[in-house]
Amino acid sequence: MPNSCLDQALKPVKVMISNADQHLELCQSLELHLRDLQQKGLIELGCDRRSDTGVPIKHPSDSLLHQADVILFLTATPTLSIFIRSSYFEQTSLPKLQDVAQDQELETAQPQFAHMTQGPSWTPVVQEVSRIAQDIQAQILAAQQAQRRQTGITEYKQLAEKFFQDGDISPAERKMLARLAEQYQLSDRDIDQIRIELKAAYDTEKSNRQEFRNAVQLELQHRQGKLEKAQEVLNDLRLALGISEDVAGQIQQEILKEWPPSEPDTHTPFDVVLINQEGKEKQRTTHQIQYYVETLVSDVDLELAEIPGGKFHMGSTDDDKYHDKNEKPQHVVELPPFYMSKYPITQEQWRAVAQLEKISIELKADPSHFKGSQLPVESVSWYEAVEFCDRLSRLTGMAYRLPSEAEWEYACRAKTETIFHFGNTISPEFANYDSTILMTFVNIFREEAGKVGRETTPVGHFKVANAFGLYDMHGNVSEWCLDTYQTTYDLAPADGSAWIDMHNGRSQCVKRGGDWFSSSMNCYSASRDSNAPDESSSQLGFRVVRTSI
Fold first, then answer.
1. Hey, what CATH topology would domain 4-143 get?
2. In Å, how far are 21, 451, 461, 474, 486 from 496, measured between CA atoms?
3. Which residues pair with 43 in a beta bridge?
4. Which of 75, 165, 261, 475 could cross-link with 54 by S-S, CB 3.0 to 4.6 Å?
5. Where does the source fall among the domains of life (predicted)?
6. CATH no. for 268-546
């Protein structure tokens, strides 16, 4: 309800005439001329009859002077000075019309009215007093209105926060808020601003709670269901996120009720296909592996396949059907185990991570040319892919990155030595590439008819993987690697690490796998290409790796 003092009529401004005894007639004359203002309720008039030396008053002891808002001071000259007192403003916490020094020294509001005679014209004085009184009342009224508005905003905001705790305001609740806004005469702008602030606060709180929930789940997994030793760090995180103890406790209890989690189907089956020289399926086998699942946000997971360590021949030879000089010399690389994402990063996964706090650069929420939650994200630069990995690492507490070029080829081949992991040819029945291109290559000429190769396809669309359980390694989108592009494999690392040439200034970065717009001769396991790290296109995406669980 509004404060009752705001509804009261404005009080008259207290005006005090202070004069020397010898100017009694002037005082009475001035009182007479000001009586009209008093009758109108604009001022409350009083007179202080005491002797005066003509020196301006400091620290007046008279209680009437202390109560006055305006003092009309008749000196021995005779001269009239008009002063403003601060008492009214201090009592109501209103802005002062005139600054008053800390020692309560009087301040002149207007230049003195001098050269008064026994019959002065009081009109200018009356006009000045009227103006000052009206100014004071105008400021009082404005302050009352501002106070009323602020009270209304505060009450509206408190009620709206109460209603919006579940993220929605019901029709009945909206009516209650509308009545409150009408009662306080809140503007549409006031209400819109409150709603914007309320939505922002709700979104922040929701995000913070989810971040805390993710942290509790990770700690629970890391400590095998025992949270006792994690309470100190979780409490620090709770304070940093602005989450109350009650809410944090409720989140922990909800998670603990579900612990241990029900045993998932730890081994996921998938099909591996081999095709003959005509591109027809000649063999199909079913494999099973256990994918590691990383939860990004509710209902959005990242699946990772464990890639066993081992040796392989990286690159191509002159005897291969497809080969290029930048794939030579073929050399042996030995890699430790690592984990790679089952699919190229999807647009759904990108959005979940792109909304997290920036580390180095901004990320667009929806950069892709082709739209779809399960389509691979594309039109992202190498720098943006690295930023994604950095944000993902901070979210999960694990070190994610782009794969090295050696890791990518080793994972793509999956222990095969053929040109593709399907065999020595490829088919549009099992991969998304431009199969309509006429190609002449090492005495090979044929048209590969197909129905894809016009846009990206959902990850896993062809329902076949390689022996490591990885999908879409040939075609769909080319994939960024961590390495700086080199024109040959001379001096290439033999341990599977990324080959980063700092002297090259990272003018080009490696991309692998070919894409929907590529012919088959750009999609084989050893094929290499590059782009500048700040470039992006609808043909270029990425997947992520990590070295430990």
1. Rossmann fold (3.40.50)
2. 106, 36, 30, 20, 15
3. 13
4. 75
5. Bacteria
6. 3.90.1580.10
